[in-house]
Write a structure and sequence with these properties.
By secondary structure, the chain is of the alpha+beta class. The protein has a domain of 209 residues: paralog of FGE (formylglycine-generating enzyme) (Alpha-Beta Complex), CATH 3.90.1580. Helices cover 13% and strands 17% of the residues. It has four helices and 14 strands. The strands form five sheets. It has a four-stranded mixed sheet with strand order 11-10-9-12. Strands 1-4-13 form a three-stranded antiparallel sheet. A hairpin with a 7-residue loop joins β9 and β10. The termini are far apart. It binds calcium ion. The site of calcium ion has 8 residues, from loops.
Length: 317
């Protein structure tokens, strides 16, 4: 795998430093809402189905729809948390990609030759970039050395590359969902195909209310990651498939100029109606395997566990 080559290259290409010269507005931080207790079940059965993968495509890479058949499987009810990832690191001594020196690319700025990762920052008058390479950003310090996960053990782990997610999955004896498995779960779980609000209006997922990237109103209670399973479960009992953090899937995408890529699904707290709107089951993005960010995490599936004795009938759409 060509791992950390992507980040310096992307910075040089300007991909991580996207457009958007508008100044950021300060939004008062409200006290985050209390979250309900964690789900009782770690995994729930997602009945198999033949369904329209890529239905309701809004963007070119999402369509055209095609019929796929996915057997049933067990899916984690929540995204992998900082606490869970910390157990893994404590047990194995694992070091994530963001903690390792990136490859030395000719012409890369010196600050990119030391460990770091990509961090979202609302643009300002002085710096119009959305994504910045932050030295020292890694899973324990998601937005850089001055930030911490202390007190955030229930937040989804971020700043993990694809191989980091795979290593965790292997340690747990589990795996990552394919894109088709993920989309089956989201679409049959009742995820809305539009903005994720309930009938009476309140947000049903952690996404971005307001005009991205300048003003996140935080109507849903969070202007960054939310603790996992703080928002209501879907029909299957799965939380946060939509919003909170993007989730790695095991499905490969066409490689970029610099690195292999995989599909990520679900959108994140940065998805707004005026911009990416990728909080839909069919939405997908392609992410360099070696590049975690502060809005990409993952969840596991268990393919070794037998199907329940009396599973619900297959979903049909
Ligand atoms: Ca939010």
């Amino acid at each position: 795998m060509i791992s950390r080559a992507a980040a310096p290259a992307l910075m040089l290409l300007g991909v991580l430093a996207a457009c958007g010269p508008a100044p950021a507005e300060k939004v008062a931080e409200a006290k985050p809402p209390e979250c309900p207790a964690m789900p009782v079940e770690d995994y729930v059965w997602i009945p198999g189905a033949t369904f329209a993968f890529g239905a309701d495509a809004h963007l070119p890479e999402e369509g055209p729809p095609r019929t796929v058949t996915v057997p049933g499987f067990w899916m984690a009810t929540h995204e992998v948390t900082n606490a869970e990832f910390a157990e893994f690191v404590k047990a194995t001594g694992y070091r994530t990609l963001a903690e390792q020196d990136p490859p030395k690319l000719p012409g890369a700025p010196p600050e990119m030759l030391v460990p770091g990762s990509a961090v979202f920052t609302a643009p300002t008058d002085g710096n119009p970039n959305w994504w910045r390479w932050v030295v020292g950003a890694e899973w324990r310090h998601p937005a850089g050395p001055q930030t911490t996960i202390t007190g955030r053990s229930r937040d989804p782990v971020v700043q993990v590359g694809y191989d980091d997610a795979l290593a965790f999955a292997k340690w747990k004896g589990k795996t990552l969902p394919s894109e088709e498995q993920w989309e089956l779960a989201a679409s049959t779980g009742g995820a809305d195909r539009n903005v994720p609000v309930g009938k009476d209006g309140p947000p049903r997922a952690n996404y971005y209310q307001g005009v991205f990237p300048v003003r996140d109103l935080g109507t849903d209670g969070f202007t960054s990651r939310a603790p996992v399973a703080c928002f209501p479960a879907d029909n299957h009992g799965v939380h946060d498939l939509i919003g909170n953090v993007w989730e790695w899937t095991a499905s490969a995408a066409a490689p970029s100029a610099t690195e292999e890529r995989n599909v990520i699904k679900g959108g994140s707290f940065l998805c707004a109606a005026n911009y990416c709107a990728r909080y839909r089951p069919a939405a997908r993005q392609f992410q360099e395997r070696g590049l975690g960010t502060d809005h990409i995490g993952f969840r596991l599936i268990d393919t070794a566990r037998p199907a329940p004795a009396n599973p619900a009938p297959d979903n049909r759409r």
